[in-house]
Write a structure and sequence with these properties.
42% of the residues lie in helices and 24% in strands. A five-stranded mixed beta sheet has the order 4-3-5-15-6, covered by helices on one side. It has a three-stranded antiparallel beta sheet with strand order 13-7-14. The protein has a three-stranded mixed beta sheet with strand order 9-8-12. The chain has nine helices and 15 strands. The longest helix has 29 residues. It is an alpha+beta fold.
Length: 309
């Protein structure tokens, strides 16, 4: 008979990439965690993880079992949330993923505030510009700019957002201010890249319609927060979300450029697995995000508009 707590340990070990870390989160010593995993593998008659001193690797059997475990544990959590007072209280672990810059400035602090309101909740934050697979990494809520087409997910719009070009006053004083797309040629451009996707184009809205351009990159980076920091330091022109640069614009560290060409189709969404019963922790957190981001939305957008006049 498979023990439920052993299943939880296994799933958390895959998510954390460490059996010892998973054990600590569940209140077990590394030795106990190892014994529990061994017991689970014996009960199933199959090796689930290849363990080394550096990482864990799912076996074929482990991959199949992990997928079923994630689904089963989610259903159990849904059932608990659907009964009695559990519907109105966030419990357990809430895994939240967000892009690096948006996560650092907004989602991380809001998740921490949410956790303070719910003493029986633990929050796990994944702040990265890599697009995590929500199911593989057991993410409860992913906050992203722009919705992703996936029938297994629900996308809930949280706030308006555009991506715009920006640079520091020092950069513009030294290199001049571009007044058109064509004038971007010859400028130092800071380009975001993602593993497996290459360099991401700048998608701009022109009188002729949407246009994607791929300027020569002076610097490429896989982290949006670093990209913003490079722009603030005067190293070039970046293409950033309004939410990422609003404070820098308001305080004079960055200047919006070609605002009339800003991408119009990148609202901020919360994305989460489609389930018959949504766990209270997800429902309450998404409601909280919508309320808090909505409260700040006007200030963020107005600061960009004022600086663009």
């Amino acid at each position: 008979m498979v023990d439920l707590e052993d299943m939880q340990l296994f799933v958390r070990a895959v998510t954390d990439g460490s059996l010892s870390a998973a054990g600590r989160e569940l209140g077990h010593s590394p030795a106990v965690a190892s014994k529990r995993l061994t017991r689970l593998e014996k009960a199933l008659g199959a090796r689930l993880l290849q363990r080394s001193s550096r990482r864990l690797i799912l076996t074929d059997a482990g991959s199949i079992f992990h997928e079923r475990c994630v689904a089963l544990l989610a259903e159990l959590e849904d059932a608990s949330a659907a009964v009695g007072a559990g519907q109105m209280e966030a419990r357990g672990t809430l895994h939240v993923a967000a892009p690096a810059d948006l996560g650092r400035q907004w989602i991380g602090p809001l998740a921490a505030s949410f956790a303070e309101r719910h003493p029986h909740l633990r929050v796990r934050l994944s702040m990265s510009d890599a697009t995590l697979d929500i199911f593989e990494h057991a993410v409860d809520v992913a906050v992203r700019s722009g919705a992703f087409a996936d029938s297994r997910l629900i996308a809930r719009r949280l706030a308006r957002n555009r991506r715009i070009l920006c640079a520091s006053p020092a950069y513009l004083e030294k290199h001049g201010t571009p007044r058109s797309i064509e004038e971007l040629e010859g400028h130092r451009c800071l380009i975001l890249h993602r593993p497996g996707s290459g360099l991401l184009p700048w998608t701009l809205t022109t009188a002729e319609g949407v246009r994607s351009i791929r300027p020569d990159a002076a610097i490429t980076c896989d982290n949006g927060d670093m990209m913003r920091a490079l722009a603030v330091a005067g190293h070039g022109i970046a293409f950033k979300s309004e939410w990422d640069i609003a404070v820098d614009v308001r305080e004079g560290r960055l200047v919006p450029l070609l605002n009339h060409l800003a991408a119009q189709d990148t609202p901020i969404y919360a994305m989460f697995p489609s389930r018959q019963f949504m766990p209270a922790k997800i429902r309450l957190f998404v409601d909280f995000l919508e309320e808090e981001l909505g409260r700040h939305e006007t200030g963020v957008l107005d600061s960009i508009a004022a600086a663009s006049r």
